[in-house]
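Structure (tokenized):
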């Protein structure tokens, strides 16, 4: 008997497998050990590893904010983040002196998990954060169906663990 649900699931899995087989390797996998150590130092000193809500789920996130644009552009060049944001805080009236422009580098999801995997031997202050991210269930979607409740619950628990490690600086917004 014809089962549309099973057919769609198998079709989606086949398309995904073909897409992944044809995808180029992630640039994170090509980082030299010296580059990994340098990036780990930047993340330990200026970065943050936290969880954020986006599109009804929780993703691990690695972000670096700093006023030195050259470092952010170096990260973008070597890790190939899709976007580097500029945070212009010069016009904020509550500050007596204008602040320097900040630049933000951020990666999320499975790329954040992959980066944590490669940086773990070099991280010191953010080591526990990276270990939590490595437990994260990433590829949980099955087609257009929502992520199962059990995986959402695990992500929420891990997100709360990251929030506690960060001293509640990066709190999860609850939907």
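Design, position by position:
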């Amino acid at each position: 008997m014809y089962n549309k649900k099973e057919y769609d699931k198998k079709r989606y899995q086949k398309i995904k497998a073909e897409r992944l087989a044809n995808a180029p390797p992630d640039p994170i996998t090509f980082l030299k050990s010296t580059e990994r150590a340098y990036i780990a130092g930047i993340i330990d000193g200026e970065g943050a590893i936290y969880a954020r809500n986006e599109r009804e789920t929780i993703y691990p996130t690695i972000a670096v904010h700093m006023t030195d644009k050259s470092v952010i552009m170096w990260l973008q060049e070597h890790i190939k983040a899709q976007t580097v944001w500029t945070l212009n805080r010069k016009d904020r009236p509550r500050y007596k002196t204008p602040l320097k422009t900040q630049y933000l580098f951020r990666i999320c999801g499975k790329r954040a998990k992959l980066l944590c995997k490669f940086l773990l031997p070099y991280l010191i202050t953010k080591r526990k954060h990276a270990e939590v991210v490595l437990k994260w269930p990433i590829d949980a979607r099955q087609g257009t169906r929502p992520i199962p409740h059990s995986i959402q619950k695990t992500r929420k628990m891990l997100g709360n663990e990251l929030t506690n490690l960060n001293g509640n600086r990066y709190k999860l917004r609850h939907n």
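Reviewer-requested clarification: The chain has a mean pLDDT of 84. Helices lie at 4-22, 33-46, 69-79, 109-119, 127-134, 149-165.
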